[in-house]
Amino acid sequence: MSGYPRSPKLLRGGLVLLDPVSGNVLRIIGLQYNPDSMTRSLQIKGIGGESGDRSEALRLKGPPAETIKLEAEIDASDALEAGQVSSTLNGLHPQIAAIEALVHPASGDLFAANAIAATGSLEIAPALAPLSVFVFGPNRIAPVRITELSITEEAFDVSLNPIRAKLSLGLRVLSIDDIGFDSKGGGLFMSYLLSKERFAAQAIGADFRALGIPGVF
Fold first, then answer.
1. How much is the pTM?
2. Which domain of life is it from (predicted)?
3. Do the domain assignments include residue 51?
């Protein structure tokens, strides 16, 4: 780390968990180290799957299905050297558990559902999970759902607590098609889309000479 006092502060990516109704912040999970790369894939939603339908060829049904994949590392070495009690006793268990909690229903919800089922109810609507928001700098903030989580524990202390691990995260951006236009997540998605449009407007366009043609007509 540079000792120069005016060095820019390194931002960290992470996830913010919100109450899906009120929008209140429930938890903030920051990545200890930013990933070296991130893969984004967009699957376009057209109208009609049959070729030759001229009336639908240039229409878009809605926002594309965007997926994000990244790998992040977490390490307890610095905390252990600093003598932090939690890391000394439990290694990375708390950090890993916080990530795993994103894909587990809360135990309280499971107990409640079991109690309702015991009364003879035939159908029980699952409890709403927190709304996850992926933040990767101020220019990329999107509501997401975790679709894939893989944890590779790579080193352990004498008590077999993990002290170094690699997380592989698969995320799907939630659009207004998934969560509605007027929801808290819908507003976040529209802000995400507007941000893309602002950046697109700043892109410098090419001309026909760069393409080696006088025009397309």
1. 0.84
2. Bacteria
3. no
